Amino acid sequence: MATEDTTQQANPSEEEDAIGRIPTPPFRTPKGVHDILPHDHDFHTYIKKIVRHRCRQAGFKRISTPTFEFTEVFKRSVGEATDIVSKEMYTFEDKKGRSLTLKPEGTASICRSYIQHGMQDWPQPVELFYIEPHYRYERPQAGRYRQFWQFGFEVLGEADAALDAQAILLPYRIYEDLGIVDTLKLQINNIGDLDSRTQYAEALRDYYYGKERYLSDEDKIRLEKNPLRILDSKHEDTMILNQSAPRFSEFISQESKDYHDEVLEYLTDLGIEYTLNENLVRGLDYYSQTVFEFWDQKKGAQNSVGGGGRYDGLMELLGGPPTPGIGFAMGIERVIAQMKRNKVRVPSKDNLHVFVAQLGREAKKVCLPLMDELRERGVKTMGALGKGAIRNQLTIADRFKVPFCVLIGLTEVREGTAIIRDMTVGTQKTVKMEKVVDEVIKRIGIKNLDYYNPKEPANE
Ligand code: HAM
Would you say 209 and 369 are in contact if contact means Cβ atoms under 8 Å apart? Predict the structure, then answer.
């Protein structure tokens, strides 16, 4: 997991230290973005496998949308007054002056795709999932990045409280598989339909008008554009005011209340605990009815590990046919941090079986086909094909923590043999070249070989 880096300045004048490293490298990643190094890729791979498995079990198909879209797609759906659209989008013009934006979230693009590809003619509901990077120009801090990965899904074309419960059950099971469900708390709310929200927004405006001096600048803007967002404010004076603000429960329709009760009943039947949170409004304008988030039990709203909700009016905002939808997305970096805090260990398939060390050009000629055959038969093999002395090559093998080495020097080439060295106990044995692969496989054990047949149905 990358930690936030505040020293991003390039300093090309730095000199190398004694072992050739540059203390302050001339180029670093821009603020808020990070490399995913191999160790964290083990986490990414593990999460992807679980996510794909759970989605496949529930009939979801994978979709990828482009990294950028016309800016209008996000403006119309996420909402002009939201933080995402008003402050956090990476927007640029292409050479013909068209405004494009790196996608800050996935739902808008998927709805655009549903309309564009006539998915209303597919069997409904259309269930899609995605695993992709997203971009928001936020103030970087722990768990908040400018490029971050999300796993998300959308269920389009049907509205029913049971689908809302299923949209909560799926991430719940995924968090369970990931070993972090006990560290999370499900927050849930129903924000009603557009009519009741409009009435509520009016009541909130009436309440805050005359009290503007207690509001932060940001909250004053929210008061004009979307007063519901004031309830989400982290500004201390606003939070005090919020305690006596009109409650949404006074404005919500009976229909929405019944819908909410039905969702909660399904959750109870499924054994999923929840916290009712009337202040949960979410940071995107397209929601209606059910909204939910999974919070870290200790850090609360500051660390939402995933969130989603219903968005029955969104498709029409994008010019499509009336089509209900519900979906969810989780931040993969936040999930990884949560797994690490919870000491969840993930398997790695990267460990090597064999290191092939050689001496000289003649030996290399024998090494290359040998390494090829080892790999073909499922042995993870690395070779020192550079010019180092055998002793140095063995030191490298040690650092890679390989259990076995195959050594080929000039004598072995001449005699048609190779030495197999057990790196754990330090013993070695000379074997005929044609027996080397079988001998290595015998020692590693057939069940540990790494085979991959692209034609077999992938089970990950
Ligand atoms: P969101 O709440 O904006 O919802 O993002 C979902 C999750 O992405 C968050 O709970 C968090 O874990 C992660 N996340 C968001 N911003 C960042 C960031 N800057 N750095 C790291 N992680 C972040 C959506 O995006 C909706 N599209 C979810 C949805 C799908 N609703 C319906 N369908």
Answer: no
